[in-house]
Design goal:
alpha/beta, 2,3-Dihydroxybiphenyl 1,2-Dioxygenase, domain 1, 2 domains, four-stranded mixed β-sheet, 6 helices, 8 strands, elongated
């Protein structure tokens, strides 16, 4: 038996509104459009008429349940916040910084599914490394394994010359 997880699916009220939201704000490309079901390049899908599909009472499909979220990371968090201002969104909370130094914001999509957008942990690690902090210090600051920080450090330097490679990170 070959059992393989495929993707999460979100129940939506209006497929066209949700499709436009994820395409415009999150740069998601449609990889499969079946009308009432759309799969995005990011590995998730949206489904209109979910109650009908799974044969449950429509009232049992809850809105704003706060028991899951979609998670995106972005390299330029400040630019994303500027982009976000162009959209009419409801915030779960304003931008904040966690103890592990990651800046995040949470919003609702048009159907009140929670979405977290966080600054890339790789970018954060590289920023601290560029500031001269040791890999061990960075691992402690961002609460990630040293192996993760060392992998980020390797991306910062050209492997042949060991010179900074700023065009990568």
């Amino acid at each position: 038996m070959n059992l393989k997880f495929q993707l999460p699916l979100l129940a939506v009220e209006d497929i066209s509104v949700s499709k436009q939201f994820y395409q415009q704000l999150f740069d998601q490309e449609v990889s499969l459009d079946l009308g009432r079901n759309v799969t995005f390049s990011g590995g998730f899908a949206i489904q209109q008429d979910f109650a009908w599909l799974v044969e449950v009472p429509p009232a049992s499909v809850l809105s704003r349940s706060h028991n899951m979220e979609l998670y995106f990371e972005v390299d330029d968090f400040d630019a994303f916040l500027e982009r976000l201002e162009q959209f009419k969104v409801t915030y779960v909370h304003p931008p904040k910084q966690h103890d592990w130094m990651q800046r995040v914001v949470r919003i609702y999509d048009p159907d009140l599914h929670m979405i977290e957008i966080g600054e890339s942990m790789e970018i954060i690690a590289c920023r601290f490394l560029k500031e001269g902090k040791s890999p061990e210090e960075v691992a402690t600051l961002i609460q990630h394994p040293l192996s993760f920080v060392l992998a980020c450090q390797n991306k910062l330097f050209d492997s042949a010359t060991r010179r900074p490679n700023d065009d990568r990170i």
